[in-house]
Amino acid sequence: MAKAPRSLAGMAVAITGGARGIGRATAAALIAQGARVAIGDIEASLAQRTVDELGGGAIGLYVDVTDRASFAAFLDEAEDRLGPLDVLINNAGVMPLGPFVSETDAIAQRIIDINVHGVINGSKLALERFLPRRRGHLVQLASATGKIGFSGAVTYCASKHAVVGLSEALRHELRGTGIDVSVVMPTAVNTELGSGLGITRAFKAVEPEEVADAIIEALQTGRYEVYVPKSLGATIRAGVLMPRRALDAVERLLKSDQILSHLDVQARAAYDARLAGMGSRTAPAPPLVAPADTGATEPTPERATEAV
């Protein structure tokens, strides 16, 4: 007999990169389930705008996931206002694309700092809270690229492989502690981060709400591997069983090798321009609690956004 899904009502949940895309969709889905949600984002005013639009008692807070002290302050404030943390969703991530040899060292460092160190920071800080209570749930946003390598996104793929490996190891280390780990691996997602990708007939983008629904199911069931769409899991497992030469032939036939390397540059221009501008701007950290939105644009040194 299948277990009844866990109720999420009243749970305290923190989400990084929660002001838009997958993070925002997940916050909305959690609020609908009755959870108490802290939306963390490096764009403090956008986090506040998002909670104003979503309602449900959600709170918007500043967080820089690459800064352990900032991440700790985010979780401390979330617990002060919502109660003991039940769930951390490590969603923040960036995805610069392009030939590996042309990638600057600064871009590579940014990818690793946000996509890998950000997840490590959050996982350690959440576990410091979860372990004494013998309960809690870590949700790590990885990607299909955490299982498959794609040209045009070499360092990004490496970062998502790291998240998958970290999650797998943590799952074993935490066995018997009462703490769950879920790793979420969507295909391309129809968000700004996923704009302009070379989507083919065999690989179509999913909506952020579909990823959010999969996260809700994982929280309700404790499922570890979460593929979006679910059929992606069978595809990846089948690929593992195929000889390398045959797998390469199938990928060429389906043009899956072009998804992250054959881009619509114009469609991706806004995202690329913002990423490029982030590296050249510096600003003092905004206050922990997001101020009311004034309509002004805050300068930010980096932006942690939805993962794909």
What's the total helix number?
Answer: 9
Taking the alpha carbons of the first and last residues, their distance comes to: 34 Å
| Total E-strand runs | 9
Percent range for helical residues? Answer: 40-55%
Question: Could you report the average pLDDT, rounded to the nearest whole number?
Answer: 82
| Largest sheet report | 7 strands, parallel
Name the CATH superfamily classification.
NAD(P)-binding Rossmann-like Domain
Could you list the spans in which at least 5 consecutive residues all have pLDDT below 50? 279-308
Q: Identify the overall geometry.
A: globular
Oligomer: single chain
State the strand order across the main sheet.
Answer: 3-2-1-4-6-7-8
In the CATH hierarchy, the architecture is: 3-Layer(aba) Sandwich
Instruction: Indicate the CATH topology.
Output: Rossmann fold
Number of domains: 1
How do the SSEs run, as a string of H and E? EHEHEHEEHEHEHEHHHE
Q: Which range does the strand content fall in?
A: 5-15%
Which CATH class is shown? Alpha Beta
Work out the radius of gyration.
19 Å
